């Protein structure tokens, strides 16, 4: 039987304690941020552009992993299409 014993040092104990307490805390913060966003219905979100205005060129948009993939929005909850639009649209200029 192979058993690798690692001594529980003070440093290792602190690492595990801090890491273990941080993960649930971050999960709670992320849930609160998402819950504080406006609903798509309230912001009149639509999955298509409004003329030249669309999520991909809005300052509130957080892109997904690929340019055509859905991303997130800083103010509207849920998955957001880069081709979408809502009444909170804001451009840089
Ligand atoms: S604010 Fe509206 S238009 Fe801008 S990224 Fe969010 S959902 Fe899209």
From TrEMBL:
<comment type="similarity">
    <text>Belongs to the high-potential iron-sulfur protein (HiPIP) family.</text>
</comment>
<keyword id="KW-0813">Transport</keyword>
<keyword id="KW-0004">4Fe-4S</keyword>
<keyword id="KW-0249">Electron transport</keyword>
<comment type="subunit">
    <text>Homodimer.</text>
</comment>
<dbReference type="InterPro" id="IPR036369">
    <property type="entry name" value="HIPIP_sf"/>
</dbReference>
<dbReference type="GO" id="GO:0051539">
    <property type="term" value="F:4 iron, 4 sulfur cluster binding"/>
</dbReference>
<dbReference type="GO" id="GO:0009055">
    <property type="term" value="F:electron transfer activity"/>
</dbReference>
<comment type="function">
    <text>Specific class of high-redox-potential 4Fe-4S ferredoxins. Functions in anaerobic electron transport in most purple and in some other photosynthetic bacteria and in at least one genus (Paracoccus) of halophilic, denitrifying bacteria.</text>
</comment>
<dbReference type="Pfam" id="PF01355">
    <property type="entry name" value="HIPIP"/>
</dbReference>
<keyword id="KW-0408">Iron</keyword>
<dbReference type="GO" id="GO:0046872">
    <property type="term" value="F:metal ion binding"/>
</dbReference>
<feature type="domain" description="High potential iron-sulfur proteins family profile">
    <location>
        <begin position="26"/>
        <end position="93"/>
    </location>
</feature>
<protein>
    <recommendedName>
        <fullName>High-potential iron-sulfur protein</fullName>
    </recommendedName>
</protein>
<keyword id="KW-0479">Metal-binding</keyword>
<keyword id="KW-0411">Iron-sulfur</keyword>
<dbReference type="GO" id="GO:0019646">
    <property type="term" value="P:aerobic electron transport chain"/>
</dbReference>
<dbReference type="InterPro" id="IPR000170">
    <property type="entry name" value="High_potential_FeS_prot"/>
</dbReference>
